[in-house]
Design brief:
Radius of gyration: 32 Å
Number of strands: 12
Shape: elongated
Distance between the termini: 33 Å
């Protein structure tokens, strides 16, 4: 079969350009269809990655450990001792990239002008810098100096709503571990920038200051962690549950179901769009190839009359389709890469950025070429289009030489 292919391949390529308009139209159909599939894949994956990273890099991490019942009632009453023994060894092992212990309670914050609800978080600054982006997003003032720093860091929007600023004092009130209402004044030392929801929700102080304020002793509310390997996250969760059977260990997919749903939906949508575009491409490919076969009926009959076997006629038309679709696929892939390269600094969603925050996505998307996806989708389009084109090729191979002679 290699010898017939070697002979027919140049002939098939020349036959493509006997009708340049039809060839170019088919190439455009295939290339635009593949371009839309690849660009949708790039953009949706960028959105999915932005949503995941924005959420996980704030405070969530790839997983969290809590006392039983804390997620249903996030108060100082639901706390646990700092990690030790097997749990501490596992958190400090190579399987865990970083972890951070926190005291986290619902509270009320009051300025001279306004009172608002807030999530009050006591942190270890050195641990947070390895896990969260917030310590590096200070726009005014400074971040916390250490675990015992009894100052407070607020979001820009929260400070604006409270009508306060760096250097001012605010009063935080929450239910302490023994049930009484704890109240303490904190000096604002910094403002951080993030999503509007994060800026409105969180206020940070040192973990020792928070433990003293809430009366939990050395107790903590949660441990957030990142695994060293994303693919091994489920096994890490299992190991942590074995190390701390009395604690509640959950992955980000359970803690942030909306973000996980968005990621899953985008993957399904890419496949759905692939089939929609392939259906439209099929109509164009079949129509143009059938037109070419009907126009060349006399030619195919003559070739068979001269001794060419039907299977070689089928092979010739299949080669023409393979070359035609291959050129379209190549053009579509090149256009897709060129389109992505137009945005080296990402795509600013502008007025859509506020809406994107509702699903946890950042204001700027960073589209990147995934070589695996490009090869996969290009290969799928080429193979499926070639299978579709076999119908006109089969039609050409079944042309009767006697019938073909009657065609003008």
């Amino acid at each position: 079969m290699s010898e017939p292919i070697r002979i027919l391949l140049p002939l098939a390529w020349r036959n493509l350009w006997r009708n340049p308009r039809r060839t170019i139209i088919t190439i455009l159909v295939v290339s635009v269809g593949l371009w839309s599939i690849l660009i949708f894949s790039v953009m949706l994956r960028a959105w999915s990655q932005s949503s995941r990273d924005t959420t996980l890099r704030l405070l969530t991490g790839e997983g969290q450990i809590h006392a039983a019942g804390y997620l249903d009632d996030p108060t100082a009453a639901h706390r646990f001792a700092p990690p030790s023994g097997h749990l501490l060894r596992l958190l400090e092992s190579p399987a865990v990239k970083a972890f951070a212990a926190r005291v986290r309670v619902s509270a009320i914050i009051q300025s001279e002008y306004k009172t608002l609800p807030v999530t009050f978080v006591g942190v270890v600054p050195d641990q947070e810098r390895k896990l969260s982006v917030l310590p590096n997003q200070i726009t005014r003032g400074r971040y916390l100096n250490g675990s015992s720093d009894a100052s407070i860091v607020l979001g820009r929007d929260l400070a604006k709503r409270l009508k306060t600023r760096v250097g001012k004092r605010v009063v935080v009130m929450t239910q302490a571990a023994d049930g009484h209402l704890a109240e303490q004044a904190f000096r604002v030392v910094g403002l951080f920038a993030s999503t509007e929801q994060a800026e409105d929700t969180f206020a940070f102080t040192g973990i020792v200051a928070a433990q003293t304020f809430t009366g939990v002793g050395n107790g903590i509310s949660e441990i957030a962690f990142d695994g060293a390997n994303n693919k091994a996250l489920s096994s890490l969760i299992t190991d942590l549950r074995r190390a701390a059977p009395n604690l509640d260990v959950r992955s980000w997919m359970v803690l942030e179901p909306l973000v996980y749903a968005v990621s899953t939906f985008f993957n399904d949508f890419i496949l759905m769009w692939l089939w929609v575009m392939f259906t439209l491409m099929t109509i164009g490919i079949v129509n143009t190839q059938l037109m070419a076969v009907f126009e060349r009926t006399r030619e195919f009959g003559l070739l068979q009359a001269l001794g060419m076997r039907p299977r070689l006629v089928l092979l010739e038309v299949a080669l023409e389709s393979a070359l035609l679709i291959g050129v379209g696929v190549a053009v579509g892939a090149v256009l897709s890469v060129a389109t992505v390269q137009l945005f080296p600094d990402g795509i600013d969603l502008g007025f859509l950025g506020r809406g994107a925050e509702f699903v946890g996505a950042g204001r700027i998307l960073y589209p990147r070429v995934d070589t695996g996806d490009f090869i996969l989708y290009s290969g799928i389009v080429w193979m499926l289009s070639l299978l579709v084109a076999l119908w006109p090729a089969r039609r050409a191979s079944r042309v009767s030489p006697v019938e073909a002679m009657s065609y003008a």
